[in-house]
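Researcher: Next entry in the queue.
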Amino acid sequence: MNHVFIHTPVLLAEVLAVLRPRDGARYFDGTCGGAGHSAAIMEASGPTGFLSACDQDPAAIRAATERLAPFAGRSELRQMNFAEAASWVAPGSCAGALLDLGVSSPQLDVAERGFSFQNDGPLDMRMASDRGATAADVVNGWGEEELGRLFWENGERDARRIVRAIGRERAMRRFETTGQLAACVERTCPRAGRKAHPATKVFQAVRIAVNGEVEALHKGLAGVTGMLAPGGVLAVITFHSGEDRIVKDFMRSEARDYDLPPGEPDLPHLRIPRPPRATLITRRPILPTDAETSANPRARSAQLRAMARL
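Model: Structure for this entry, 310 residues:
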């Protein structure tokens, strides 16, 4: 089924302020979605600015192709995960790069995509909707210990109880829909007052696993940084603490003047001196304004971090 892919870009003014698009420069958007950020970057980069952009969602690529039509000849799009984009975009070629992580509103709002417990639909959650294992494969196929670890690492403190309930139910019937999974979690951990839906962290954890988001982020941060020219800016928007921690740690590591042996703690006698590779633009994340969160409540958890390559 075809759906209109309309996505309101979050922290748009703040992204443009850190990227500072200029005429004649090349930019990269690794999560272009409906191309809201991409189009704004192109408009701000003058008549000879160039954009390379990608997204793993074919629906997003179709929407972005239409949105970027006015910039034909100055933009190129590919359906791929940004973690693989370093094989396509030349190293040292970009004046700026943007990663807007997580799931977009058009994906959440289409029940058939299976991202949300708000609308019952197939248990899918694939961002690349035409490839890979589904959320149903994870919920039905992973062992209870493995599922419990996934939920716990995503901040679900009732992971053990939830996993036991999932195990009992899937022994009788396979999990097939978002409503079925959400109902199982809510029976196990009933909602209290105005708190978030009890299935929120479970759905987030399963989505992260289905799409390999943690692995892609680690690989993509390094790869996209390599695309930047000296002085080039990497801007990353995150939506939950796990993502933000990875981005913060990566940027701080790039900005410091030493390495550490793999797996070792940061102790002075273990530090291996080297020149810093980047400078931090944001020491603390930039948050959306009250006006933005009032107009777009889904922006409320967004955080923007940025660094410049040396």
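Model: Residues 129-210 form a domain with the DNA polymerase; domain 1 fold (CATH 1.10.150.170).
Researcher: Noted, moving on.
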